[in-house]
Here is the input.
Amino acid sequence: MLLQAEGLFKAFNDTIVLNDISINVECGEVVSLVGQSGAGKTTVLRCITGLEKCDRGSIAINNKYICKTENGITTYATKNELAIIRHELGMVFQSYHLFPHMTVLENVTLALTDVYKVMPTEANEEAVKMLESLGLGEKIDSKPSQLSGGQKQRVAIARSCVTKPKLLCFDEPTAALDSALVVEMVKIIRSLAREKGIGILIISHDEKFVRDVSDRVLFIEHGKITREMTSEEYKSVIRD
Here is the structure.
């Protein structure tokens, strides 16, 4: 199993946000987490990506533990261990988080050169291949301000994928896209899963997008997973 998150609890002050959450994702599988605002979706994602510490529970990515609870004691990955885990983990944020003063190419190569110490020539080659595969070959010298919302989204995907993650997480990937671009996003995500074998975890409010992109759909309410559906079951509920 690529992602194993089991028994996650998280509280902010006296408010319980996650209450015994468990989520698994396999290589090449697309899993969507859906629920109302405030249900706990974003907190789940932040815990899985190491941006937030859960109070207890276990999270393993490719058998490497971000946190683990045994005998009532929760231990967390060290800074060095977390850096290794993050090499297998990608995150595409809702707001893209592109650097406005950098070109598209510079945004995509930054992690390769600065974090993973890849030589600039090799990093540029990898980035250009990734950008071309996402239809952005002509935009490598553009700044983010010169791009559409859909193009910014694809740059953010390229930046995450160029490091070859095993697990890729998306936070509301269609929030700023029109219907035509949503269809394109479905194709891109399905391709990443099927052709590259990347496990994908999505949080989204977009029911039709979730219907078309997912292998499994998990429903979260008040910090608990309340239901799970296969793609076929979900398609029978959500129709055009």
